[in-house]
Amino acid sequence: MAESTSGDKFEIPQDMARILYEEGALLIIAGVPVGTEFGVDLSTNKVDEMFRGVKMIPPGTHFVYTAAEGIYGDTAARVGFVHYFKKQEIVIREWDQNTEELRHRSSANIERDKARIRENLADLDKFLAPYDFQQLKKWQQLSNEITEEVIARTEPECSGVIRSSAEFQSCSDADRPKGQSPLTRPAKIRPNQTEDELLPNLKVVQGTAPRFTKIPALYPNSASPAEISESHLDAIRAIETYFSAFLDPFEAIREIQMSFILFLCGCSVDALAHWRKILGLLAKSDSAVSKFNCFYRRYLEILKIQLPELPEELMMPTSNNTVYKDVRQLIINCSLGGLKDEADVFTAQLTSVMSWYFDDLFDENPEDLPVIVEI
Q1: Residue 6: what pLDDT?
Q2: Which of 144, 176, 194 is the last residue of a domain?
Q3: What φ, ψ does residue 28 adopt, rounded to 5°?
Q4: Looking at residue 288, what is its pLDDT?
Q5: Could you give the angle at which helices 340-354 and 322-336 cross, rounded to 10 degrees?
Q6: What radius of gyration do the chain's Cα atoms show?
Q7: Are 120 and 227 in the same domain?
Q8: Structural domain of residue 132, as residue ranges?
Q9: Low-confidence ranges of the chain (pLDDT < 70)
Q10: What is the pTM of this model?
């Protein structure tokens, strides 16, 4: 079996265990080296000689990942995949020695292999670890909106492999940037340039990055000064543009959950950046709260589950923490947009669980006050 590093296992009722033993999904893995970190959802383990997979997996969305162990006991970055497990489904993966990750089984007849596993399940049972049900409730809260269609639409095209970051194309030394002369360097930065425009023009290797819906800029490059000011005061137009990419605004909730679990379990910096950009946009409009009232009510429920799972560096309630600042602005706009009761419950939850305090929410922010220039 796999040696658990997530604490004591939770004993589930016998009747539930019997149902899941008969109807739960199976994950069969082959060739994973001893000592490799292996995880499903929020449970992490170390592989031993007996381990061949996981049984009794509840139907639904699950994240499977591994991290190879180095010769000095160090652990590589996590690599994994998201799969929507169906009732009684058998999923087979095998270890790729070259890439040190799980891949689809290379078999001429995968259905025949699954049939053999089903026939010999009694003999295989001792090599399968049960799903860690101690973490199931929290996992379902984090992933319950993610459908099979969302997984297929957002996972990387390259075999659906989730890495800690997308891969970038290398370039020859001749093509490598050598810096710019004062004659070719832009004279100034436009006030409405986006963050992406200011970063180096690195090209992602096709198929290695999650395919999330693009988040629009707060305002277009052609915006007038008045439109820029209006967009900073209320980002309703950008939010409407973002929602227009979906058949229904609630589809955005599914991508929000997807991006968060890719970060939480897969340590994907791309997914975390996307999640933060969505929060930054949605926090900037009270008129959007009024127009998309039901969406924002659900969004607050989602954030109550997600925020306590953030890394320590994003936990400090300071002005330097952009997540805290955006959440604070979101609370203000939800209160102004017709969700005051929900915002109050949300605030109380964050204060209780995370010690995030939101005093003087509606006091004038010194940064927003007019600046008096003496001549």
Answers
A1: 47
A2: 144
A3: -105, 125
A4: 96
A5: 150
A6: 24
A7: no
A8: 3-144
A9: 1-13, 159, 165-208, 363-375
A10: 0.83
Q: Tell me the two tokens of residue 366.
A: 């010194």
| Structure token digits, residue 47 | 């592989």
164 occurs within a structural domain: no
Q: Which residue has the tokens 């340590």?
A: 267
Q: Single out the residue of 207, 154, 165 nearest to residue 78, CA to CA.
A: 165
Pair 130, 262 in one domain: no
Total domains in the fold of the chain: 2
Q: How many CB atoms lie within 10 A of CB 161?
A: 18
Residue 94 near residue 31, CB atoms below 8 Å: yes
User: How far, in whole angstroms, is CA 324 from its chain's centroid?
Assistant: 18
Confidence (pLDDT) at 88? 93
User: What CATH number corresponds to the domain at position 362?
Assistant: 1.25.40
pLDDT of residue 353: 95
Q: Which of 128, 144, 160 is the last residue of a domain?
A: 144
3-class DSSP state for residue 362? coil
Q: Are residues 212 and 116 in the same domain?
A: no
Residue 7: the pLDDT is: 46
Average pLDDT in the chain: 85
Give me the torsion for CA of 36, 104, 96, 39, rounded to 10°.
-10
